[in-house]
Amino acid sequence: MAWLVKKISDACAVKNYSPRTRSCYTSWARGLFEFCERRDPRTWCAADVKAWLTHLANERFSAKSQKQALNAVVFVARHALEIELGDFSGFHHAPEFRRPPTVLSRDEVLKVLDAVAPKHRLACELMYRCGLRLNECVQLRVMNLDVANRRVCVHDGKGGKHREIPLPNCLIERATNRIKWRAGLHEADLAAGAGIAPLPDRLGKKLPSACRELAWQFVFPSATIREGHRWWMGDTWVQAAVREAAAKAGVAKRVTPHVFRHCFATHLLEAGANIRDVQELLGHANVETTMIYTHVRAAGVRTFVNQLAS
Questions:
Q1: What are residue 153's DSSP bridge partners?
Q2: Spatial CB neighbours of 117, under 8 Å, sequence gap ≥ 6
Q3: Active site residues
Q4: Which residues pair with 165 in a beta bridge?
Q5: What is the pLDDT of residues 22-42, one digit of tens each?
Q6: How far apart are CA 286 and CA 308, in angstroms?
Q7: C-alpha to C-alpha distance for 77 and 91, rounded to whole angstroms
Q8: Is residue 156 within 8 Å of residue 200, measured between CB atoms?
Q9: pTM
Q10: How far apart are CA 143 and CA 292, in angstroms?
Q11: Of 173, 183, 171, 178, which Cα lies nearest the Cα of 215?
Q12: What is the pLDDT of residue 285?
C-alpha cells in the first residue's frame, strides 16, 4: 500500500490538488484496499468498486461521502494505477438528505464571539465578518490581510479559486495590531535562526529568500517551531475554542467554525444583499450552492403565520 500512497501523492501534485484532497483520496483508497482484503490494487475491477460503494450505503454513509469515495477511486484508478475499472454503475446509492445549515441569530453570534478566548477572537471574527472557511482563515498570510486597502485576499481557496472580501471597519484596528504583533514574533524567530514559512508551488525555487520575509508569514502561527519553520495554527485549536465559547455563551446549538460562514451568508441576505454578490464573497462556483441560504426569505412569512395564529 505504501507504493500506492506515493503514486496518489505524485498524481495529486501533478494536478496541483491540496494536501487535504490528497489525504482524503488516500483514505478512501485505503478503505477499498481493506474491503478487497488487501488484494493488489492493480487487480481492482468494476465489481469490486460496485460492491464497495453499495457497502458504504448499507453502512449508513451519507450521499456526500459516497460521492467523495467514488471520485477518489476513479482518480486513483486513472491517474495513480493507470487502469480502467470499466462500468460499475448500478450500485446502491446512499439516500440524500439536504439539511439546512445551522444559523445563529446576530445576538447569538455576538455572544459566542464575546466568549471566545482572546487568542482566537480575530480568527473567529474574520470567519463571521468575511465569510472565510476555517482552513482559509488559519492559513492566511500577512500579505493577504491587506489593512491598507481594507480587504482580505484569499488565494488558492477551495477549488483553487481566488477572491477578495472587504475588511470591515470594526476589524481594522485589531488586524493592524495583529500584524504588528506578528512582525515582532517574526523578528524574534529570525534572531533565533528560524522564521521560515513554507511557500506555495515552486516559489521557493524561484525566490529562495522569500520564505524569511514577513509578507509570507502566517497571521495565525503555530506556538512551536519545527525545523526552523513556523507553520499555521492547527484547525483543532479554533474548533475547540468555538465549542467552549458556545457552551459558555449558553447557545444550545451545535456551533462549529463553519457556522460563522453560514451566519455571514444568511445575515447578508437578510440585510438585502444580492445573492450573486454573496456568491462571489463566498467563492461558490455555482449560485445553486449559495441558494441554500435563501431559507431566510421565509422570515417574511412569519408575519402571515402570526396573523393566522392570532
A1: 164
A2: 241, 244, 245
A3: 133, 158, 258, 261, 284, 293
A4: 152
A5: 999 999 999 999 999 999 999
A6: 37
A7: 18
A8: yes
A9: 0.79
A10: 32
A11: 183
A12: 82
